[in-house]
Amino acid sequence: MIGSVCFGAFRLDHFDGLIPFDFKTEPAESNSKYLVNLLSLELTYFCSGLLFAAVVRRRVWDYAFTVTILHVMITSLVMLEFPMVWQWWLALGSGLFLMICNGQLIAYFTCQSEQSYASFSIY
Questions:
Q1: Contacts 24+ apart (CB under 8 A), 105-112
Q2: How far apart are CA 42 and CA 75, in angstroms?
Q3: In the 3-class helix/strand/coil scheme, how is the chain assigned residue by residue?
Q4: Is the entire prediction scored with pTM above 0.90?
Q5: CA Rg, the chain, in Å?
Q6: Do 60 and 7 touch, CB atoms closer than 8 A?
Q7: How many angstroms separate the CA atoms of 73 and 53, rounded?
Q8: Which tens digits make up the pLDDT trace of 65-97?
């Protein structure tokens, strides 16, 4: 869904269903398709952190790692090769960091009044 919004915002000519998985697009600031891929990846990870905080409320980092590992596996299957592009791994890592930080902080602040919620000192 976020990929579709980014596609419309950048007014690309051809919608590519590989947007969440495409690591073969040439990384350049002037390449609109690359920017759509990058922006949709980061925004999806940001929104997923919010979703995990609302649904799970605990251990968002665990769900974030699991989703990222699944994403890498599905990407390898869809593109028929393992991603070796360092820019893609950097974007994936920063998205993972963003998802963990915003999700865990929101879960912490919304659930800190609950007695059963584990504090950071237990981790």
A1: 106/49, 106/50, 106/53, 106/54, 107/52, 107/53, 107/56, 107/57, 107/58, 107/60, 110/53, 110/57, 111/57, 111/58
A2: 16
A3: CHHHHHHHHHCCCCCCCCCCCCCCCCCCCCCHHHHHHHHHHHHHHHHHHHHHHHHCCCCHHHHHHHHHHHHHHHHHHHHCCCCCCHHHHHHHHHHHHHHHHHHHHHHHHHHCCCCCCCCCCCC
A4: no
A5: 16
A6: no
A7: 24
A8: 999 999 999 999 988 999 898 998 999 999 999
Question: Which two three-digit tokens encode residue 90?
Answer: 């950097």
The model's pLDDT over 4-28, given as tens digits with 9 standing for 90+, comes to: 666 667 677 777 767 778 788 778 8
